[in-house]
Amino acid sequence: MPRHPLVSKYASLAAVRDRLPRRPAALGFELADRRVLAVLAVALLLWPFFGSNYWINVAVVVLSYVVLALGLNVVIGFAGLLDLGYAAFYAVGAYLSAILITTYGWNLWICLPVSASAAAVFGVLIGYPTLRLRGDYLAIVTIGFGEITRITINNLTGVTGGPNGVVGIPRPELLGVTFAGPIHFYYLLLALAVVAVFLTNRLAHSRVGRAWTYLREDHVAAEVMGVNAQRFKLLAFGFGASWAGLAGAIFSSRIGIAAPESFTFFESILIVVIIVIGGMGSIPGVIAGAVAMIIVPEILRPLLTYRFLIFGIVLILVMRFRPEGFIPARRLRVRLPAGGVGPEADA
Amino acid sequence: MDFALVPQYVVNAVTLGSFYALLAIGYTMVYGIVKMINIAHGDLHMLGAFAGFGAVGLVSALLLPGPAVLIWAVVVAMLACAVVGMFIEAAIYRPIRTDRRSSTTAGPLIAAIGVSYVLQNGAAVIWGPNRNAFPPLLPSNRFEIAGAQVGVTQLVVVALAPLAMLVLYLVVQRTRLGRAMRASSADPAVARLMGIDVERVILITFGIAGAMAGLAGVLVAVYYGSFYVFMGLVAGFKAFTGAVLGGIGSVVGAMLGGYLLGGLEVLGTAIFPAEWKDVFAFIALILLLTVRPTGIVRDASASARV
């Protein structure tokens, strides 16, 4: 059967393909030993029985930021869209579920998918007009959307309770267990974080993930090769936002209130910083970033007055000395055969 | 909206617009050359207010007349902000910009957010987070012009801002330095080949941007009679919106955009409740960037660009 000329011309690309790893490493980062993973899992499951409530609470906060940062990492790290208004989606999830629970008597478990979907829709709605924008223009517009969301929540007193917020959210209940202490939320968020790690990792190594990488690295080339930029960018916005919706719904049920000051510009920046410090696009990096950004300030509590100042200095220092983050994302690299690839190498 | 108040709205819009225009110039000049949104620029104008306040304190024992003190405060604030702006560029932005590991937009932008946090919270640690009163340097007389109440401070603001902008415009258009700036903005690589020290031009650009922000800071503090460490953030966003309105990169555009934004905001507050005030700038920005990202100055021709 005669082959199309183009096919034979680039047939030797098979040489490249053969050099690609057969299976992408789980987590994108080789946990050399499955036993390490098993020990880690057991430790994460068991330590709360021995830990103090204080540290369990800290862990709960860390885990919610892990979920948030993994979601935003899809947008910033994978798709390369600098979104600085992510707290808006967090707010949507938190308020929607708070209102559905207090006013309409829903329970948290039904609210979770609803909040996630609503945040995803909101993400796509915000993403749509920004599709043409790149880089810092996109960043500024997302800041604008974040601020508009916060001010709107603050001003729509009839719906959101204004500056007071939605109060009196009852503790969620599951299979007869009331979520009274931090330990319940710890396991809930641990489960959510594991799901988030698994899903975002699989997605990163899927066709969708490759399209995001392509768009991030070379927008024009990606579009020329037939990647539908609009579709994949909206997908990144929507999928990323859905995690903020989930985290928001759990957040408002956990603290019993949804109030505007939880969703400021600083909140968005904190999540961005977690990603940047850890390493954009790197899942282990994002987890390490969340641990560092939540636990270090806890240890430095006496320096609370200087918290934001230190925060700014850290941002500058990381950008100056380690712009790729502490656990940089591993890029797939392939060495081309010495003779080059293409028709000449064929001959 | 009360139509009898239209003259007053116009006066207020021009005053507000002067502040935005002065700040917008800094955004536009820096963006024109290094293609970076210097988010910390708004905080420089906060520093300007504090520098001006400090300068007033220094000479308070001399019992100088108010206008002389104001001029002194303006000079000190402009110099201080120019120095700080240049320091930030040389010590932070330049090394990050030229670092090949750093992503081209995210790196400088995130560093700028860091600088903004350092300026705001460093100032809060030093001076406290509360509002400070700025001493009244000018007489509080008010005139009535065409049905609008105009104070002396307002007149000074409305006169001083365009004067500064005119000087800047002449520098950019008529001097050797201005030519170097325009060349560096149009094509840094070619400018370098023509023997222009582009890094030095960038440094000077940050200095000029800082000076304009310092002037804006003192004028804001004198006009409102108060200033505080977090005043830069929202003002900065709005001024940036002004710069985009005018077509980013164009100095004349930034001036027009600043005044236009002042008008929009006054109009918005006249029609809608005041608590929505800060939303207008953001909505204008989003609409503008999504519909017409090139700004209103249609052909911001090379001669007007810095």
Task: Provide a descriptive summary of the structure in words.
The complex is a heterodimer of chains A (347) and B (306). Chain A has 347 residues and is an all-alpha fold. Chain A has a single domain, classed as ABC transporter involved in vitamin B12 uptake, BtuC (Orthogonal Bundle). Chain A is built from 16 helices and four strands. Chain A has a two-stranded antiparallel sheet with strand order 1-4. Chain A has a two-stranded antiparallel sheet with strand order 2-3. In chain A, helix 4 packs parallel to helix 9, helix 4 (53-78) runs antiparallel to helix 12 (229-255) and helix 5 (87-104) crosses helix 12 (229-255). Mean pLDDT of chain A is 80; it is low at 343-347. Chain B is mostly helical. Chain B has a two-stranded antiparallel sheet with strand order 1-4. Chain B has a two-stranded antiparallel sheet with strand order 2-3. Chain B has one domain (17-235). The chains are: A mainly alpha (347), B mainly alpha (306). The interface between A and B is large, with 42 and 44 residues.
What's the short story on this structure?
By secondary structure, chain A is mainly alpha-helical.
Question: What amount of the residues of chain A lies in strands?
Answer: under 5%
Helix count of chain A equals: 16
CATH class of chain A: Mainly Alpha
Tell me the number of structural domains of chain B: 1
Major sheet description of chain A: 2 strands, antiparallel
Class by alpha and beta content of chain B: mainly alpha
Helix percent band of chain B:
over 70%
Q: Which pair of protein chains has the largest interface, and what are the residue counts?
A: A-B, 42 and 44 residues
Topology diagram in text:
The complex is a heterodimer of chains A (347) and B (306).
Chain A: H1 5-9, H2 14-19, H3 34-46, H4 53-78, H5 87-104, H6 108-127, H7 135-155, H8 157-160, E1 166-167, E2 173-174, E3 177-178, H9 182-204, H10 207-217, H11 219-224, H12 229-255, E4 257-258, H13 265-278, H14 283-299, H15 307-321, H16 343-346
Helix pairs in contact in A: 4-9, 4-12, 4-13, 4-14, 5-6, 5-12, 6-12, 9-12, 10-12, 13-14
Chain B: H1 6-34, H2 41-59, H3 66-97, H4 106-127, E1 132-133, E2 142-145, E3 148-151, H5 152-174, H6 176-186, H7 188-193, H8 198-224, E4 226-227, H9 231-245, H10 251-271, H11 277-291
Antiparallel strand pairs in B: 1-4, 2-3
